Amino acid sequence: MVDEEAKDNYSHVLKYTGIFGGVQGLNILVGIARTKFAALLLGPSGMGLVSLFNSTISFMSQATSLGLSFSAVKHISEIFDSGDTARISHFIKVVRVWSLLTAMAGMVLCAVLGPLLSDYTFAWGDHTLHFMLLSPVVGMMAITGGEAAILKGAHKLRALAVIQVLCVVASLVISVPVYFFFGMQGIVPVLLLVAMADMAFTLRYSYRYYPLSLSGGRSVVREGLPMLRLGVAFVLTGIMGSGTEVVIRSFLNVNAGLDVVGLYNAGYVLTITYAGLVFSAMETDYFPRLSAVHKDLAAATLTVNRQIEVSLLIISPMLALLVAALPLLMPALYSGSFSPVVPMAQVAALSMYFKAVSLPVEYMTLAHGDSLAYFVLEGIYDVVVVALIIWGFGRWGLFGTGVALTIAHAIDLLMALAYTHARYRYTPSAPVCRYALLQMPLGAAAFAATLLPQMWMRITAGAAIVAVSTACSLYILYKKTSLWNKLKQKITRHG
């Protein structure tokens, strides 16, 4: 039996995972429409070019942001909870000054390194001018990240949700007509205009709560140094992650061409990125809760296990449905020319079962301030995933990249479990093991069902597996949480 306190804890995890995941889900729905139009108007080659520019710009942004968007949240949140409005206003000024400095540095560095980025990313043509034109995007991303950190730290979550929706709608409104009239020549203008829209919406809401003031001079700059030191490990990890994506896409571009890059990116977005909406509550809700109890190893272990349980139970039916429905989803969301990537996306979706377990475990290192361990573990994963994708693509083409992603996430989970057990005596609970042993085989069965010879067999078997996975998750969540009882009380009260 689950006591009332435990039910409330499970309900809290489920509630905030649902809220933040729901916002991401809404953004994804609009993003799907944008991607569909872009795929039709640009084709795989154009989508590959967009992917290469985006991954490189993301890499430059990570390299020059100094972890501000991560470290500032913690500092602002601590001051905000104290209720000292003068300190809040002052530290927001510190964040904005450093955001401006990193924006200028990132913009200049991207422009200066344009020739190097062009040579490394592309095997054909000179794209130096493109990277110079895209350098303001790096600057705008730094300013947007700083202002978003202010809103997060001040708990303006409703404003953040509105901003995210406005930004993704603006991206749709901007990209479709530009791609329609200019085709691939409109890619750079779209990236610039979308970044500008993101910054404008974020500034509008942030300045409404906290008007702009940058006075203070060198003292303000010095006060930001401790905040930046906190973000060093996080930004280095981000650089490695973005750099890994650049390496992978560059490898595919050089060895197979832009069409394959576009196909790989479509499969990656549909599996790794879209499934990640369940994990969107980690940094906002789960990480602060884990940090608050990290000194109590028993409480920290309980917090981690409950987060894993809820994450597994929510994401498993989604993954089973995704695997079974991808042959229909891929042509509908992109176009028929993207069908060759379906097998890759189906097997890559299985990697998210491992991530649902590994991600909450990995946050233990950050909660304990063990930034070096977090950096090393992520660095090993990045090396492993690049090596496996090169191997997998060489053996089985795009399908091999999906196999490589799943194996890499399994290895990442084993490393995280081994380290946290040795360092923090963390052990997965019996329910975590039971749910994993229940849902992971169902995901594998959903993939196996897609290999059946007849369409009616694939549909029947896939629907049955999704139904079983969903029923199991709903039953367990019903037993473990009090949300159902609270919902019935509200209905009765208003009835």
Could you give a short description of this structure?
The chain is mainly alpha-helical and 495 residues long. The protein has helices spanning 4-64, 68-82, 85-112, 114-121, 128-153, 157-182, 187-209, 218-223, 225-230, 232-256, 258-275, 281-292, 297-333, 342-349, 351-367, 371-396, 398-424, 430-449, 455-480, 483-494. Helix 1 crosses helix 12 (281-292) and helix 3 packs antiparallel against helix 5 (128-153).
Q: What is the helix fraction of residues, given as a range?
A: over 70%
Mean pLDDT: 82
End-to-end separation: 30 Å
Q: Report the strand count.
A: 0
Reported for the largest beta sheet, the result is:
none
Counted by DSSP, the helix tally is: 20
Structure description:
Helix 13 (297-333) packs parallel to helix 18. With 495 residues, the protein is mainly alpha-helical. It has helices spanning 4-64, 68-82, 85-112, 114-121, 128-153, 157-182, 187-209, 218-223, 225-230, 232-256, 258-275, 281-292, 297-333, 342-349, 351-367, 371-396, 398-424, 430-449, 455-480, 483-494.
Name a few traits of the molecule.
20 helices, 495 residues, mainly alpha, globular
